[in-house]
Design brief:
The protein has about 220 residues and is mainly alpha-helical. The protein is built from 8 helices and 7 strands; from the N terminus they run βαβαααβαβαββαβα. Helices cover about 50% and strands about 10% of the residues. Bound molecules: adenosine-5'-diphosphate and adenosine monophosphate.
Protein backbone atom coordinates (compact mmCIF):
# COMPACT_ATOMS: atom_id res chain seq x y z
CA UNK A 1 0.00 0.00 0.00
CA UNK A 2 1.68 3.19 -1.19
CA UNK A 3 0.71 6.78 -0.46
CA UNK A 4 1.80 9.92 1.35
CA UNK A 5 1.92 9.93 5.14
CA UNK A 6 -1.66 10.55 6.29
CA UNK A 7 -3.16 9.26 3.02
CA UNK A 8 -5.08 6.64 5.00
CA UNK A 9 -2.82 3.61 4.46
CA UNK A 10 -3.12 2.29 8.02
CA UNK A 11 -6.89 2.85 8.11
CA UNK A 12 -7.41 0.97 4.84
CA UNK A 13 -4.89 -1.79 5.63
CA UNK A 14 -6.76 -2.64 8.84
CA UNK A 15 -9.99 -3.05 6.83
CA UNK A 16 -8.35 -5.10 4.07
CA UNK A 17 -6.56 -7.53 6.36
CA UNK A 18 -9.81 -8.20 8.18
CA UNK A 19 -11.75 -8.81 4.97
CA UNK A 20 -9.15 -11.00 3.23
CA UNK A 21 -7.51 -12.69 6.24
CA UNK A 22 -4.08 -11.14 5.71
CA UNK A 23 -1.39 -9.81 8.02
CA UNK A 24 -0.76 -6.06 8.33
CA UNK A 25 2.94 -5.14 8.40
CA UNK A 26 3.36 -1.42 9.10
CA UNK A 27 7.00 -0.31 9.23
CA UNK A 28 6.04 2.77 11.30
CA UNK A 29 4.13 0.66 13.86
CA UNK A 30 6.98 -1.89 14.09
CA UNK A 31 9.52 0.93 14.59
CA UNK A 32 7.42 2.56 17.33
CA UNK A 33 7.02 -0.81 19.10
CA UNK A 34 10.75 -1.52 18.94
CA UNK A 35 11.60 1.96 20.24
CA UNK A 36 9.12 1.68 23.15
CA UNK A 37 10.48 -1.77 24.03
CA UNK A 38 14.11 -0.61 23.94
CA UNK A 39 13.37 2.52 25.99
CA UNK A 40 11.72 0.32 28.64
CA UNK A 41 14.71 -2.01 28.79
CA UNK A 42 17.16 0.89 29.09
CA UNK A 43 15.05 2.36 31.91
CA UNK A 44 14.99 -1.04 33.68
CA UNK A 45 18.76 -1.34 33.12
CA UNK A 46 18.08 -4.80 31.66
CA UNK A 47 19.95 -4.17 28.47
CA UNK A 48 22.34 -1.26 28.51
CA UNK A 49 23.18 -1.44 24.83
CA UNK A 50 19.54 -1.44 23.66
CA UNK A 51 20.09 2.06 22.34
CA UNK A 52 20.00 1.30 18.64
CA UNK A 53 16.29 1.80 17.98
CA UNK A 54 15.77 4.89 20.18
CA UNK A 55 18.37 6.68 18.01
CA UNK A 56 15.84 6.44 15.16
CA UNK A 57 13.19 8.25 17.20
CA UNK A 58 14.93 11.59 16.56
CA UNK A 59 14.77 11.03 12.81
CA UNK A 60 11.09 10.08 13.02
CA UNK A 61 10.29 13.12 15.17
CA UNK A 62 11.86 15.45 12.62
CA UNK A 63 10.06 13.88 9.65
CA UNK A 64 13.15 12.28 8.11
CA UNK A 65 13.47 8.66 7.05
CA UNK A 66 15.23 6.03 9.14
CA UNK A 67 18.28 4.54 7.30
CA UNK A 68 17.50 1.90 4.67
CA UNK A 69 19.73 -0.71 6.39
CA UNK A 70 17.75 -0.50 9.64
CA UNK A 71 14.38 -0.70 7.87
CA UNK A 72 15.29 -3.47 5.43
CA UNK A 73 16.70 -5.68 8.20
CA UNK A 74 13.66 -5.01 10.39
CA UNK A 75 11.13 -5.71 7.63
CA UNK A 76 13.04 -8.77 6.41
CA UNK A 77 12.64 -10.21 9.91
CA UNK A 78 8.91 -9.44 9.93
CA UNK A 79 8.30 -10.84 6.43
CA UNK A 80 10.18 -14.09 7.14
CA UNK A 81 7.91 -14.72 10.12
CA UNK A 82 4.66 -14.29 8.16
CA UNK A 83 2.56 -17.32 7.26
CA UNK A 84 2.04 -18.11 3.56
CA UNK A 85 -1.49 -16.63 3.64
CA UNK A 86 -0.10 -13.25 2.71
CA UNK A 87 0.40 -9.77 4.04
CA UNK A 88 -0.09 -6.10 3.28
CA UNK A 89 2.94 -3.83 3.55
CA UNK A 90 2.21 -0.34 4.86
CA UNK A 91 4.88 2.41 4.91
CA UNK A 92 7.49 0.15 3.33
CA UNK A 93 9.22 0.49 0.87
CA UNK A 94 9.78 4.26 1.12
CA UNK A 95 12.87 4.60 -1.11
CA UNK A 96 13.75 3.06 -4.48
CA UNK A 97 16.64 1.26 -2.79
CA UNK A 98 14.21 -0.29 -0.27
CA UNK A 99 11.92 -1.38 -3.15
CA UNK A 100 14.83 -3.02 -4.93
CA UNK A 101 15.97 -4.78 -1.74
CA UNK A 102 12.38 -5.91 -1.09
CA UNK A 103 12.13 -7.53 -4.54
CA UNK A 104 15.31 -9.51 -3.84
CA UNK A 105 14.15 -10.44 -0.36
CA UNK A 106 10.77 -11.71 -1.60
CA UNK A 107 12.41 -13.72 -4.41
CA UNK A 108 14.68 -15.41 -1.83
CA UNK A 109 11.67 -16.30 0.32
CA UNK A 110 9.47 -17.61 -2.51
CA UNK A 111 7.02 -14.72 -2.09
CA UNK A 112 5.85 -12.04 -4.54
CA UNK A 113 3.89 -8.82 -4.80
CA UNK A 114 0.38 -9.42 -6.17
CA UNK A 115 -0.86 -5.84 -6.14
CA UNK A 116 0.51 -2.35 -5.66
CA UNK A 117 -2.19 -0.05 -4.29
CA UNK A 118 -1.39 3.64 -4.57
CA UNK A 119 -3.48 5.99 -2.42
CA UNK A 120 -3.46 9.38 -4.18
CA UNK A 121 -4.32 12.35 -2.03
CA UNK A 122 -3.55 16.06 -2.16
CA UNK A 123 -1.18 17.69 0.32
CA UNK A 124 -3.74 20.00 1.94
CA UNK A 125 -5.98 17.04 2.85
CA UNK A 126 -2.98 15.09 4.14
CA UNK A 127 -2.05 17.93 6.51
CA UNK A 128 -5.62 18.04 7.89
CA UNK A 129 -5.67 14.29 8.34
CA UNK A 130 -2.32 14.06 10.12
CA UNK A 131 -2.80 16.99 12.49
CA UNK A 132 -6.26 15.62 13.43
CA UNK A 133 -5.10 12.02 13.87
CA UNK A 134 -5.41 10.43 17.31
CA UNK A 135 -3.96 6.98 18.03
CA UNK A 136 -4.53 4.36 20.68
CA UNK A 137 -1.22 3.62 22.45
CA UNK A 138 -2.49 0.16 23.42
CA UNK A 139 -4.13 -1.42 20.35
CA UNK A 140 -2.90 0.93 17.60
CA UNK A 141 -6.43 1.92 16.46
CA UNK A 142 -6.44 5.22 14.56
CA UNK A 143 -9.12 7.92 14.73
CA UNK A 144 -9.58 11.48 13.50
CA UNK A 145 -10.99 14.33 15.58
CA UNK A 146 -13.52 15.18 12.85
CA UNK A 147 -13.61 12.50 10.15
CA UNK A 148 -13.42 9.22 12.06
CA UNK A 149 -14.31 9.99 15.66
CA UNK A 150 -14.28 7.52 18.53
CA UNK A 151 -17.64 6.96 20.28
CA UNK A 152 -16.39 8.89 23.32
CA UNK A 153 -14.05 11.82 22.62
CA UNK A 154 -10.41 11.00 23.40
CA UNK A 155 -11.12 7.35 24.33
CA UNK A 156 -10.40 4.22 22.25
CA UNK A 157 -13.57 2.27 21.27
CA UNK A 158 -11.71 -1.06 21.57
CA UNK A 159 -10.05 -0.88 24.97
CA UNK A 160 -10.95 2.41 26.69
CA UNK A 161 -7.35 3.72 26.57
CA UNK A 162 -6.76 7.48 26.36
CA UNK A 163 -5.93 8.44 22.77
CA UNK A 164 -2.68 10.25 22.05
CA UNK A 165 -1.39 12.57 19.34
CA UNK A 166 1.79 11.24 17.72
CA UNK A 167 4.79 13.51 18.29
CA UNK A 168 5.43 13.61 14.50
CA UNK A 169 1.87 14.76 13.73
CA UNK A 170 2.49 18.45 14.57
CA UNK A 171 2.03 20.83 11.61
CA UNK A 172 5.74 21.67 11.43
CA UNK A 173 6.85 18.03 11.25
CA UNK A 174 4.00 17.17 8.87
CA UNK A 175 5.37 19.75 6.38
CA UNK A 176 8.77 18.07 6.47
CA UNK A 177 7.26 14.59 6.17
CA UNK A 178 5.48 15.71 3.01
CA UNK A 179 8.75 17.09 1.59
CA UNK A 180 10.46 13.81 2.43
CA UNK A 181 7.62 11.92 0.74
CA UNK A 182 7.81 13.90 -2.51
CA UNK A 183 11.60 13.72 -2.62
CA UNK A 184 12.27 10.13 -1.58
CA UNK A 185 9.08 8.08 -1.73
CA UNK A 186 7.17 9.27 -4.80
CA UNK A 187 9.85 7.75 -7.09
CA UNK A 188 8.89 4.35 -5.60
CA UNK A 189 5.54 4.60 -7.41
CA UNK A 190 7.37 4.98 -10.74
CA UNK A 191 9.61 2.05 -9.82
CA UNK A 192 6.53 -0.15 -9.42
CA UNK A 193 4.89 1.18 -12.59
CA UNK A 194 7.86 -0.33 -14.45
CA UNK A 195 7.68 -3.72 -12.72
CA UNK A 196 4.08 -4.33 -11.54
CA UNK A 197 0.49 -3.25 -12.12
CA UNK A 198 -0.21 -0.21 -9.96
CA UNK A 199 -3.82 0.44 -8.91
CA UNK A 200 -4.33 4.19 -8.46
CA UNK A 201 -6.96 4.96 -5.85
CA UNK A 202 -8.58 8.36 -5.27
CA UNK A 203 -7.91 8.69 -1.53
CA UNK A 204 -9.29 12.24 -1.24
CA UNK A 205 -12.72 10.62 -0.78
CA UNK A 206 -14.13 9.50 2.57
CA UNK A 207 -12.81 6.29 4.11
CA UNK A 208 -15.74 4.07 3.02
CA UNK A 209 -15.48 5.22 -0.58
CA UNK A 210 -11.73 4.53 -0.56
CA UNK A 211 -12.36 1.04 0.86
CA UNK A 212 -14.92 0.36 -1.87
CA UNK A 213 -12.41 1.26 -4.60
CA UNK A 214 -9.75 -0.96 -3.03
CA UNK A 215 -12.12 -3.92 -2.64
CA UNK A 216 -13.34 -3.59 -6.23
CA UNK A 217 -9.75 -3.84 -7.50
CA UNK A 218 -8.73 -6.64 -5.14
CA UNK A 219 -11.85 -8.72 -5.91
CA UNK A 220 -11.19 -8.35 -9.65
CA UNK A 221 -7.58 -9.38 -9.11
CA UNK A 222 -8.59 -12.43 -7.06
CA UNK A 223 -10.82 -13.63 -9.94
CA UNK A 224 -7.97 -13.50 -12.51
P1 LIG B 1 -1.35 6.75 7.06
O1 LIG B 1 -1.29 5.34 7.63
O2 LIG B 1 -1.32 6.76 5.57
O3 LIG B 1 -0.32 7.66 7.66
P2 LIG B 1 -3.86 6.94 8.56
O4 LIG B 1 -4.62 5.73 8.11
O5 LIG B 1 -3.27 6.91 9.93
O6 LIG B 1 -2.77 7.37 7.45
O7 LIG B 1 -4.88 8.18 8.41
C1 LIG B 1 -4.46 9.50 8.77
C2 LIG B 1 -5.63 10.22 9.46
O8 LIG B 1 -6.68 10.47 8.53
C3 LIG B 1 -6.26 9.44 10.61
O9 LIG B 1 -6.66 10.36 11.59
C4 LIG B 1 -7.49 8.76 9.96
O10 LIG B 1 -8.53 8.56 10.91
C5 LIG B 1 -7.89 9.79 8.91
N1 LIG B 1 -8.40 9.21 7.66
C6 LIG B 1 -7.95 8.09 7.04
N2 LIG B 1 -8.61 7.91 5.87
C7 LIG B 1 -9.45 8.96 5.74
C8 LIG B 1 -10.40 9.37 4.72
N3 LIG B 1 -10.55 8.67 3.61
N4 LIG B 1 -11.10 10.50 4.93
C9 LIG B 1 -10.91 11.24 6.04
N5 LIG B 1 -10.05 10.92 7.03
C10 LIG B 1 -9.31 9.79 6.89
P1 LIG C 1 4.56 6.09 9.56
O1 LIG C 1 4.02 5.46 10.81
O2 LIG C 1 4.46 5.19 8.36
O3 LIG C 1 3.97 7.46 9.32
O4 LIG C 1 6.14 6.30 9.81
C1 LIG C 1 6.60 7.13 10.83
C2 LIG C 1 8.08 7.41 10.62
O5 LIG C 1 8.83 6.18 10.73
C3 LIG C 1 8.50 8.00 9.28
O6 LIG C 1 8.33 9.40 9.20
C4 LIG C 1 9.97 7.57 9.21
O7 LIG C 1 10.80 8.39 10.02
C5 LIG C 1 9.94 6.18 9.83
N1 LIG C 1 9.70 5.12 8.82
C6 LIG C 1 8.63 4.31 8.72
N2 LIG C 1 8.76 3.48 7.67
C7 LIG C 1 9.95 3.78 7.08
C8 LIG C 1 10.65 3.30 5.94
N3 LIG C 1 10.15 2.32 5.16
N4 LIG C 1 11.84 3.86 5.64
C9 LIG C 1 12.37 4.83 6.40
N5 LIG C 1 11.77 5.35 7.49
C10 LIG C 1 10.57 4.84 7.84
Amino acid sequence: MLGAPGAGKGTQCKRIVEKYGLLHLSSGDILRQKIAYSVERIADRKELNAKRYPLNADLMDSGELVPDEVIVEMMAGAIKKTPQAGFVLDGFPRTVNQADRLDKLLACNGKRIDAVLNLKVNDRIVAERMTGRRSCPQCGAVYHIENLRPKVEGICDNDGATLIQRSDDSLEVVKNRLKTYHRQTEPVVDYYRKHNTVYDIDANKDADEVSAQLIENLDALAKE
